[in-house]
């Protein structure tokens, strides 16, 4: 098939190789964990060290050598605080590299699955955010992720973008693991903010939803929100983590309404995931139930 014919003869989603970039990060490791349940699909897992998506030359060569049908992009700059001073690096990974990746996907007729964030919103809406709501990021991280979204939408037709929120799991660095680690310290005292409301989302749920989407060959492409249901504050999340572990009485957990950060954070960034449930058939799970499931599975 000639290069110019690729877009006119699309393959079925999931027919060939499925590449997971950033495979050693939190979300990437969740994909590795659950890929075994989809053994009819052929996965290629690549860490950021093995495939640096900021190198368009290396990425293009990888695609040409491996015939990638679907690219699940888990590579991202996620350091919200550091992004305020590492602006160029944040935009390089979250926007410029994503732009190049989208171009390579278009050239190779590859479906791109990409992940964004609730931080594309300013947090001033009282009700859960819809995909149709206008983004207005208030920090560099959110702005860089929004730019990546826009690049994909301008270049590709066959893509899924999933905005998610407050990701945690048993892997990597996240709030859930930080709370558990600090609870082990003698005389642990935790002051956690009550000034931000969102939805903790188990990264395992997101990975399983995307894998099922590919397995079902669902082609309702577009922008979606995917988060666990319900809402809480960071303090409420910490309290639930400790309570489920039987550690609440061992830790001095305090509320704080003056938690200072370098980056501004949206005060209310709950996502409405109804569109994903209706169009993609994904299951939505309450955040408390999902947290309980994770802690009971250890």
How would you describe this structure to a colleague?
This protein is of the alpha/beta class and 298 residues long. The termini are far apart. The strands form four sheets. It has a six-stranded parallel sheet with strand order 2-1-3-4-5-10, sandwiched between helices. 43% of the residues are buried. α1 links the parallel β1 and β2. α2 packs parallel to α4 and α4 runs parallel beside α5. The longest helix has 21 residues. It is globular, with a radius of gyration of 19 Å. It has ten helices and twelve strands.
List its traits.
298 residues, alpha/beta, six-stranded parallel β-sheet, two-stranded parallel sheet, 10 helices, 38% helix, disordered N terminus
The span between the termini is 49 Å
Tally of DSSP β-strands? 12
Beta strand %: 15-25%
Content-based structural category: alpha/beta
How would a textbook summarize the main sheet? Answer: 6 strands, parallel
Give the uncertain stretches in residue-range form.
Answer: 1-9
Please count the helical segments.
10
What's the layout of helices and strands?
Elements (H helix, E strand, L loop, with lengths): L16 E5 L4 H10 L6 E5 L9 H11 L1 E6 L6 H4 L3 H21 L3 E7 L22 H16 L3 E6 L2 E2 L6 H9 L5 E5 L3 E2 L2 E2 H13 L6 E4 L6 E2 H11 L7 E5 L17 H7 L6 H10 L2
Parallel strand pairs: 1-2, 1-3, 3-4, 4-5, 5-10, 6-9, 7-12
Antiparallel strand pairs: 8-11
Helix pairs in contact: 1-7, 2-4, 4-5, 6-8
